[in-house]
Each structure stands twice: as C-alpha cells, then as structure tokens.
Amino acid sequence: MALATIRPRARRAAATRAGGRWRTHRQALLVVLMLLAVQLVSLARPAYACGCGAMVHDPKTTMAVGRETSVVRWDGKTEQIVMSLQVNGTAPDAAWIMPVPHRATVKLGDPAVFDRLATLTEPAVAQRHYFWPHGGDWPFGQNGDAAEAPPPSAGRPGVGVVGRERLGPFDVARLTATDPGALRNWLKTHGFHLPAPLASALRPYVAQRWEYVAIRLAPAERDRTLSGTLDPLRLTFTSARLVYPMRLSALAATPQSLGLYVLAPHRMEPRSTIGGSRPEVFFAGRIHPEGPLRALTGSGPTFLTAIDQTFPQPHRITGDHELRRTTHDTPYRRVRYEYALLKVAGIPAWLITVAGTLLLLQTASAALALTIAARRRRRLTPADADD
C-alpha cells in the first residue's frame, strides 16, 4: 500500500521537474529570439550620416554608405572637394547635407579624377627571389617560375537661399542659416526630410555661421533604387585652413570608411583621429598633374597625400577633420613584392649549386681515392724490391 502511494507521488514530482525544465527552455528560447530580432532591426537601421555630411532618405527604406572617397585640393586660400559615395539599400531617392565653412559653388565632378589618382598611388612593384624551389616550381610542379606573392590605415533667425540649380541627377540648394530649427523646416518644406537627431547635430555649424549644400538625387531610371557609386560632385569654397566636414558622421548607424586624396603644396596629415582608427598614409609624393587632375591643380607640381581611415564606432566622432602640414615632405609609397625562383642564366640557382656540390664531392672523392692508392703503392715498393 505504501509503495503504491509513493509511485504516483514520484511520477507527479518527475512531471513537475520536467515542466519546470520546459518552462526554463522556453524562456531561454524567447530571450534568444528577442535578441535576434533586436539584432536584425539594428542591421536594418538606415545610416543618417556619412563622412561627407548627412544622408537622408525615407525611414521606410534602408541605405548605407559603404565607402566614401574624396579628393581635397587646397592652396592655402581656396579649398575644393570632389566627393564620390558608394551606397547600397532600398531607397528610391535620397539627399545629403554638406556643411561648408564659407559660400560654395557646386559643379559635377569628373569620375576620371579618381581613376587617375588610383593609378598614381598604386604600390611600386619590386621583385624578391627565393633559393629553394616552392610547390609550383620544378621538380614539384609545372606552373611557371613565379610564385604567388603574399598579400601585402547672428542675425535674424532664418534661412537664406544662396542658389539652387540642377546638376545632372542632382537637385542642389546652397543655404545659409542662423537657426537649426529654421534650417530643418526649410529643408522639410522643400523635400529634404531631416530626422530630429540630425537637426540637432547641425547646431555647432549654425553657431560657427557655416553654410550648407543640400543635395537631392534619384536614379536616372524609374523603379530603381540608389545603389553603387554615385556621380561625384565638386564643391569649391574659400578656407584659410584645410578642413573636411565629418561631425555629422557621428549619427551613422553603420561603420564608416573614408579615403582622402589631399592635393596641397606640402605633405598633409590630420591633426587627430577624431574618434576613428589611426589614419593610414598609403602614398605621399610630389606629382605633376596630367589629364583630369589639371582642372583641380593646374599644370604645376603639387604634393599628393593619400589617407585611409575607418570609423568602427561612428558615435565616437568628435568633430571635423582638420589637416596640417607635416614637418618634412617625406615621400612614401607602398611596395608590392613579387617572388620568383632565383636563376642564373635561366637555370635555377639551387640546381647549379647542388650539381656543383656533387661535382666537387665526386672530384674530392676521386682525388682521395688516388691519394690512398698512391700511398699503398709506396708502401709496397720496398718489399717488391727485396724480392
């Protein structure tokens, strides 16, 4: 009787423990699903800013700036910026805001400028040799002689319209503003919808009496989204210091990548990292502009400094890039090494060395054998004479 009573209790206790385990597992599963949902939402958040300024689009769509490359020309008085953006997402149109320290003129840029600069800053090619054969060399393979090289940083509040024009696919408005709220309202009225955080981020520029270039664009064909490399724009304005606006990038939701080609009388460097990785110089040297570069620099020689920088956490960006002259105009160029098997007169050096070593060993062995034989003959000669 006691045993029969104990067994149902045991079963109920086991069922209770099983139910508790199931509830625990279900709660853990719900937590994992919630975290996954949050992660997906964060990945889908639009990037409200890029290094060149503020990127604005319909909040129901997505857009991210994967790479921003700009050419900056400064002669000590006038600054020119040619911007090229690589974007991807689902937005059918978008706009961005570019703060500038003084009144700017805007024109379409020449994409060939970037091709020319990419060619000028390519790594120099140098050859290094290795002695012993690798996997692709004879006798291990027949893939040729060269091995693959291994893969190698205050007035009245309001907005003034300086000008508005159509440049190719771009609708460009050049503005002044003494009040960030008024600037936001004007932009909204004319189709540039700024999110509240971006309007707040413009306050430092309003306080410094900067001006703004508002640019709206759409794909050339209907029913398409903005994707790929956008047509470059060229901005020109007066500036006693070389400055590249970056403050608004602190609002970006995705990591930012910046490439700067700086054309100036001397080698230039950023004054600080402004919250990003350490800027990496991948080219520095004096060049003689040709082709599309002459429209920026003229025909005289100029110094080119090419800089790469990433911003893994854009919210850490503290301000705009200001560049200064370095102490020395030290040239620099990356080197890409091509590795090849060392040869002498078309014959692998290791083969000549091995063959020569074998020949020397054979010669030494033969000489040693002759020496031993001669000594034996000398020892035998007296005995033969006695006989």
| Helix count from the secondary structure assignment | 7
Shape, principal axes of CA atoms: elongated
In total, the number of domains comes to 3
Mean pLDDT across residues: 77
Question: Regions with pLDDT < 50 over 5+ consecutive residues?
Answer: 1-6, 28-48, 143-156
Distance between the termini: 125 Å
- Based on DSSP secondary structure assignment, what is the total number of beta strands? 23
Describe what this molecule looks like in 3D.
It holds the Pfam family DUF2330. This is DUF2330 domain-containing protein. Keywords: Membrane, Transmembrane, Transmembrane helix. The chain crosses the membrane at residues 349-370. This protein has 387 residues and is α+β, with helices and mostly antiparallel strands. It folds into 3 domains: 1-44; 45-340; 346-376. It has 7 helices and 23 strands. The protein has helices at residues 2-44, 112-120, 180-189, 196-201, 203-207, 294-297, 349-386; strands at residues 49-50, 53-56, 63-74, 78-89, 94-100, 104-108, 124-130, 146-147, 159-167, 170-177, 211-217, 228-229, 233-238, 242-244, 256-264, 268-270, 280-287, 302-311, 321-325, 332-333, 335-341, 343-344, 347-348. Strands 3, 4, 6, 12, 13, 15, 17, 18 and 20 form a 9-stranded mixed sheet that branches. Strands 1-2-5-11-10-9 form a 6-stranded antiparallel sheet. Strands 7-21-8 form a 3-stranded mixed sheet, with no helix packed on it. Strand 22 and strand 23 (347-348) form a beta hairpin. The longest helix has 43 residues, at 2-44. The radius of gyration is 36 Å and the shape is elongated. The N and C termini lie far apart (125 Å). Mean pLDDT is 77; it is low at 1-6, 28-48 and 143-156.
